[in-house]
Amino acid sequence: MGCVVADLKVRFAGLELRNPFLLASGIWGESGDSLAGAWAAGAGGVVTKSIGSLPRAGYPNPTIETYERWGMLNAMGLPNPGIEEYPREIEVAQRAGATIVGSVFAGDAAEFARLATQMARTGVSAVELNLSCPHAEGFGTEVGGTPEDVEEIVRAVAGAVKIPVIAKITPNTSDPAALAQAAERAGAAAVSAINTLRAIAIDVHLRRPVLSHGIGGLSGAAIKPVGLACVWQIFEKVKIPVIGIGGIMTAEDALQYVMAGARAVEVGTAVAFEGVGVFGRLARELSSLVDDLGYARLEDAVGVAHRSA
Ligand code: DHB
After folding, report:
1. Which of 106, 111, 176, 191 could form a disulfide with 180 if both were Cys (CB 3.0 to 4.6 A apart)?
2. Are the C-beta atoms of 28 and 271 separated by less than 8 Å?
3. How far is the CA of 235 from the centre of ligand 1 (A)?
4. Would the pTM of this model clear 0.85, i.e. be above it?
5. Cα 135 off chain centre by
C-alpha cells in the first residue's frame, strides 16, 4: 500500500462530489465569495447558509461562544438575505465552478416547498432542508422535529422539485432513525445528520446566559460521538444515503463517519476554527489514510464497521 492515491470521489443521490468534504451549512456560506473560497480551497461541495423567504437580521450579539479544544456554541438566529436576494450569491459561487447544495428553512411544509422551488431554479445540485435548528422560534425542530413533521415537509418538497432533497435531521430526539425513516418514506434522496445539540452557557458574573438568545446549538469535537451514533442508527434503518455531520476535525474523524455509514460528511466548526484551508488538509490526510488501510476507493469503506459489530 501507500503507492496509489486513493480515490476520494463519491457519487450518491444524484450528486457527484470530487471528495466527501462538504462545507456545512451556516459556516462561511452566506456570500457567494465565501462559498467560492471554500470551493477554491478544496471542498468537495458547499452547502449554503440556510435561506428563508424574507431577509432576517438574526439575534443581537453575543451569538457565539467558543471552547478552544472541544467545541462551539452558537445562536445566530438564522440571519440571511432572503430567497429573492440570494440567487445572486449562488451565481458567484457557480461562476467559480462550485458544486452547491442550497439550504432552506421555513415555518411549514408549503413554505418549504415554495422556497425549495425557488432555490432549485438557481441551478443548485440539491436542496438541504433545515429541519433541525435547535433554537429558532417557529423554525427548525419546532416544525421539523418529529417523524410526522419530517414526512409532511419532505413529501411537499419532493413533490415540488426535481433535484435531490436532503433532509437534515436533529439529534435532539430519542429516535433519530425514525426521523430518517420518515424522510425516506416521503421521498428524500438522502439524510444529513446531525445538526447542533441544544445547549446553553451561563456567565456567573453577569448571572445570565452568555448568548443573547440564551439557548443555542453546540457543535465541534464534543458532539462527534453523538453524530456517529445517529449515523450508525440511521444506517441500520434506511437505504437512502447518509451524510455525516458533527465534530469532524481530522481525516480519521471523517473515516469514522464513513465506517458508521456516511457517504460524505459536512465540516463546520473546523472551518470556523481553522479557515477553509482545512479542506485541503482533510482531503490529503484522508487520501493517505484510506490508502494505508488498503482501500482503493473511499466508497469501499462505507458502513464497514457494522459488519463486525
Ligand atoms: C442557526 C443555527 C443552527 O444550528 C441551524 O441549524 C440554523 C441556524 C442560527 O442560529 O442561525
Report:
1. 191
2. yes
3. 25
4. yes
5. 17
- Would you state the pLDDT for residue 308? 76
Establish whether residue 23 lines the binding site of ligand 1, counting it when its CB lies within 6 angstroms of any ligand atom. Answer: no
Q: Which residues of the chain have pLDDT under 70?
A: 1-5, 309
CA nearest ligand 1 atom 4, residue: 133
**Predicted pLDDT at 30:** 83
Q: Residue 203 pairs with which residues in a beta bridge?
A: 208
User: Per residue in 257-267, pLDDT tens?
Assistant: 999 999 999 99
**Ligand 1 pocket residue status of 103, Cβ below 6 Å:** no
| Cα 44 to averaged position of ligand 1 atoms, centre (Å) | 22
Calculate ∠ Cα 276-259-198, nearest 5°.
60
Indicate the top mutation candidate among 48, 59, 76, 218 to test ligand 1's pocket, ranked by most ligand atoms within 8 A of CB: 76
**What pLDDT, on the 0 to 100 scale, is given for residue 309?**
64
Question: What's the pLDDT score for residue 1?
Answer: 44
Hey, which of 133, 195, 266 would you mutate to test ligand 1's pocket, going by the most ligand atoms within 8 Å of its Cβ?
133
Report whether residue 75 contacts ligand 1, using a CB cutoff of 6 Å.
yes
**Which atom from ligand 1 is nearest to the alpha carbon of 217?**
4
Is ligand 1 within 6 A of the CB of residue 145?
no
- Is residue 51 within 8 A of residue 83, CB to CB? The reply is yes
Other Cβ atoms less than 10 A from the Cβ of 29: the count is 27
Q: How far apart are the first and last CA of the chain?
A: 26
Name the CATH topology of 6-50+80-196+220-308.
Answer: TIM Barrel (3.20.20)
- pLDDT at res. 88: 97
CA-CA distance, 209 to 223, in Å (whole number)? 21
Retrieve residue 20's grid coordinates: 466527501
Q: Say how far residue 19 (Cα) sits from the centre of its chain.
A: 15
173: alpha, beta or left? (left if phi > 0; alpha if psi -120 to 50): beta
